[in-house]
Amino acid sequence: MNTEEVLIVQGNEACVRGAVAAGCRFFAGYPITPASEIAELMSRMLPQNQGVFIQLEDEIASISAVVGAVWGGMKACTATSGPGFSLMQEGIGYAAETETPCVIINVMRGGPSTGQPTLSAQQDVMQAKYGSHGDYEIIVLCPSSVQESFELTVKAFNLAERFRVPTIVLSDEIVGHTREKLRIPSKIIVQERQKPKASPENYAPYAPDVSGLLDGMPAFGQGYKLLVDGQLHDETGNRAGHDPVISGQLMERLCTKITRHADELIDIERSFTEDAEIVVIAYGSVARSAFSAVKMARKEGLKAGFIKIKILWPFPDQTITEAIHKAKKVIVPEMNIGKISREIERVGSCDQEISSLPKLGGFLHTPQEILEAIQQ
C-alpha cells in the first residue's frame, strides 16, 4: 500500500489482516466460538494472497499442520479458544522443542471445559505460558483493542521468526468482537524468514550463536540436512534424550534464549504513574475499563496511575517493580480468579498492598467498579 488504510472491523478481523500483512500464507484451524471469524476471513484472504487455508478435523491436526507448513517454508498460524487451546498444547510443546516459529491466536472464553462459549474471560493466562509439559519459554502478547489486535499480531510473527519460538496472541471475546477503527499504516516492519549463513555442508540446524539464537531457518527441499524430532536432541537434530548433559543443555537454552532477551520483550504503557499512590495494572479487554477508571479518579483528585501490559510473557519483572515502587497500593482487575496479581505480588515490595480484583462469570469490569476499588 502507498497510503494508510482506515477500516471499521472486529478485533478478530484485525488479527487476520495483521497476520497477512506479516507474511502469513498458511492457516489451519477448526471453527470454535468466539474465534470463528478468524478462520472465516482467513479462508477468503489467503487464497487472494497466494496463501493456503485448510479446515481440519480438530485442533490437534491444526497445530500439527501449522508446524509442518513452517518447515515447508511458510509463515503459518492457527486460531482457537479454550477447549481447542487445550488440545493444541502437545503441538505447542513440540513447536517449542523443535524451535518452530508459528503463531497461535487464542480468543479466550469462560471455562473450564465447554464453559461459556459466548462470553469473555482471561482464564488462560497461565495455560498460555505453562500449558505444555516440560520446561520451555514462549512469548505471549495481549491486545486490548482492534488496533492492538492488528499491531500485536504483526509483532507476534516478527518475534516468532527472530526467536524461533511459538508465539501466542492472547485475545479475548470482548476484544475479538469489538468493532472499531483500525488504521493500517502504509509501511509495516516485517521480519522475513532468514536463510542460514552456514553452507548446507556445514549447517547444524540447532547450533546456537553467542546470543543463544539459531542460524536462520531453511525449509525442507533447500539442500540442508534437517531432522525435526520431538525427543531432546543434539545440535544436528539427532536424538539425545538418553544423554543428561546434552538434554540439559538444550532445555536450558530453550528457556534462556527468551529470558536472556527479556529486556527486548517489554511492552507496557504507563499513564499518571509519576505521582501515583495507587496503581491499577491490567491487560486485555479489562485495560479499557481500568484506564477509564483511573482517569475518573484523577478528576476526583486521587493520585491514581495506570499500567497496561501488552507482552504478558515473559513477565516484565523489573519494569513493573520500577513503575510501582512509589505506590502504596496496587490493584489488579482480571477476568479470572486472580492469576496475574500473583505475579505482581512477586515483584512488588513487602510494604505494598497488592489487591486482586477478580470478576468471574463472563462480564467485564465496569469503570465504576474499578473506581470504587480505588476510592476505598
Account of the protein in words:
There is one protein chain. The protein has 376 residues and is α/β, with parallel strands linked by helices. The chain has 2 domains: 180 residues, Thiamin diphosphate (ThDP)-binding fold, Pyr/PP domains (Rossmann fold, 3-Layer(aba) Sandwich); 107 residues, Rossmann fold, CATH 3.40.50.920. Helices cover 36% and strands 20% of the residues. The chain has 13 helices and 14 strands. A 7-stranded mixed β-sheet has the order 3-2-4-5-7-6-12, with helices on both faces. The protein has a 5-stranded mixed β-sheet with strand order 9-11-10-13-14, sandwiched between helices. Helix 10 links the parallel strand 10 and strand 11. Helix 1 runs parallel beside helix 2 and helix 3 packs parallel to helix 5. The longest helix has 18 residues. It is globular, with a radius of gyration of 21 Å. The model has no long low-confidence stretch (mean pLDDT 97).
Question: Which tags fit this structure?
Answer:
376 residues, alpha/beta, Rossmann fold, 2 domains, seven-stranded mixed sheet, five-stranded mixed sheet, 14 strands, 36% helix
In short:
The protein is of the alpha/beta class. The protein has helices spanning 11-21, 36-48, 59-71, 82-87, 89-97, 125-130, 146-163, 173-177, 244-259, 286-299, 317-324, 340-347, 367-375, and strands spanning 5-10, 24-29, 52-55, 75-80, 102-108, 139-141, 166-172, 179-184, 268-271, 278-282, 304-309, 311-313, 329-334, 353-358. Helix content is 36%, strand content 20%.
